[in-house]
Design a protein that fits this description.
Pfam families: CBM_1 (PF00734), GH131_N (PF18271). InterPro entries: CBD, CBD_sf, GH131_N. It comes from Arthrobotrys conoides. One of its GO terms (biological process) is carbohydrate metabolic process. One of its GO terms (molecular function) is cellulose binding. With 379 residues, the chain is mainly β. It folds into 2 domains: 337 residues, Sandwich (Jelly Rolls), CATH 2.60.120; 37 residues. The chain contains 1 helix and 18 strands. The strands form 3 sheets. Strands 1, 3, 4, 6, 11, 12, 13 and 15 form an 8-stranded antiparallel β-sheet that branches. Strands 2-5-14-7-8-9-10 form a 7-stranded antiparallel β-sheet, with no helix packed on it. Strands 16-18-17 form a 3-stranded antiparallel β-sheet, with no helix packed on it. The N and C termini lie far apart (69 Å). About 23% of the residues have low confidence. The protein binds 2-acetamido-2-deoxy-beta-D-glucopyranose. The site of 2-acetamido-2-deoxy-beta-D-glucopyranose has 6 residues, from loops. 2-acetamido-2-deoxy-beta-D-glucopyranose binds next to loops.
């Protein structure tokens, strides 16, 4: 009996994978903590530099009501907004994005990028414009929403998983539905897959694997949204809100559970639920086989983050407009990880330009000079 329990505990922890970067905002008292980070003081879990010129609370806000309530490991979620001021660096795309600040190997081997995403009917994203959501700069795995640039028609209400611009899976992006995602990336074998579920359901392999050039410098995954412009409607007064929670990168094996896998309040007796796919993706190659490394549905006994406090969740699924929550809990913090990320570009390297999201500083001995609107170089 004891032996069995021990074995189960070991198996459980083995299947949990290792959180190598944690972007769950548990140690944030408000989004203004993002201002702690700067190029000269690279602290905290996020780089915050891709945004408009207004204060951070116009673009990023945190609240327990902004998270997937099934995620018991996250204290709060993030609401990311774009409005007519959300232009960064002279560009004509509306963008609010956070980038992992870490020296962890989030761009090597087999890793899983976890997050949940939803929208509501308030400040709903526009279906007539292409959005790039939670993307890598080389776009080898990402979500998109809305009418893709160059597509026919006038709107497209689907959320899509894309591999290098090719849609591999899509679902109607209904309001108030939490979509849980893991980007399964093998940087060694250059393959990507897509895991998905809704609500509190465990993640299921939904598309892939696909072969693609997986390329990342470890500081170019963008949590947030970039909206392509259409016509010259740059001053349109519409605002969009996007909600994300449960953001972390895992290595080892994939944790398919949302949060700890145990839904609070509602009495879910189970742990052995068979993942039910409710959505039928149209163009999707559905893989029925479970890849070797996949933990099916085993109860996770261990959680990687030590949470001592239970957040008093004010959960009303329609997030009211109350952002900055007063959290009195001193969450057990993971000490600010060691900085280096997006180091200055080398001499001759790119340091700016439309669409550029990499380094914007240069190594000593060179300065960043704009050669044209699309290209700035360290000279
Ligand atoms: C931001 O800095 C303040 C003041 O030093 C600190 O109390 C807070 O914990 C920091 N936030 C994060 C997320 O590290």
């Amino acid at each position: 009996m004891l032996k069995l329990a021990l074995v189960q505990a070991l198996v459980g922890s083995a299947l949990a994978g290792t959180v190598i970067w944690d972007g769950r905002f548990n140690e944030f008292s408000s989004s203004t903590d993002l201002n702690n980070w700067s190029w000269s003081n690279q602290v905290g879990p996020y780089q915050y530099y891709i945004h408009g010129s207004s204060p951070v609370t116009q673009y990023v806000n945190l609240s327990p009501s902004y998270k997937n309530p099934a995620d018991t490991v996250s204290n709060q979620g993030v609401k990311i907004s774009i409005d007519k001021t959300a232009y960064w660096n002279g560009q004509n795309m509306r963008r609010t994005e956070l980038i992992p600040q870490t020296s962890a190997a989030i761009n090597q081997g087999r890793v899983y990028y976890h997050f949940s995403v939803k929208r509501t009917n308030t400040n709903a994203p526009r279906a007539d414009l292409e959005h790039q959501v939670n993307f890598f700069e080389s776009h080898f795995t990402e979500l998109k929403y809305g009418l893709l640039s160059g597509a026919s028609g006038s709107s497209d209400p689907t959320l899509k998983w894309c591999v290098s611009g090719q849609t591999k899976w899509s679902v109607t992006f209904d309001a108030d539905v939490w979509h849980n995602v893991a980007y399964d990336i093998d940087f060694s074998s250059n393959q990507v897959s897509f895991w998905h579920s809704t609500g509190s359901d465990p993640l299921v392999l939904t598309a892939g694997p696909f072969s693609v050039g997986t390329s990342s410098n470890g500081a170019d995954w963008h949590l947030g949204v970039l909206r392509l412009p259409m016509n010259s409607d740059l001053q349109s007064s519409d605002v969009e809100d996007w909600y994300f929670s449960g953001v972390y990168v895992e290595s080892g094996s994939l944790n398919t559970q949302i949060g700890s896998g145990v839904t609070p309040t509602t009495t879910r007796t189970t742990t052995t639920t068979t993942p039910v796919r409710t959505t039928t993706p149209s163009t999707t190659p559905v893989r029925t086989t479970t890849p070797s490394t996949t933990p099916s549905t085993t109860l996770r006994t261990t959680t990687t983050t030590a949470r001592t406090t239970t957040p008093s969740t004010t959960r009303s699924t329609t997030p009211s407009t109350t952002p900055s929550t007063t959290r009195s809990t001193t969450a057990a913090t993971t000490a600010a990880t060691t900085p280096p990320a997006t180091p200055p570009a080398n001499k001759w390297g790119q340091c700016g330009g439309i669409g550029w999201t990499g380094a914007t500083t240069c190594v000593d001995g060179s300065t960043c000079q704009a050669l044209n609107p699309y290209y700035s170089q360290c000279l």
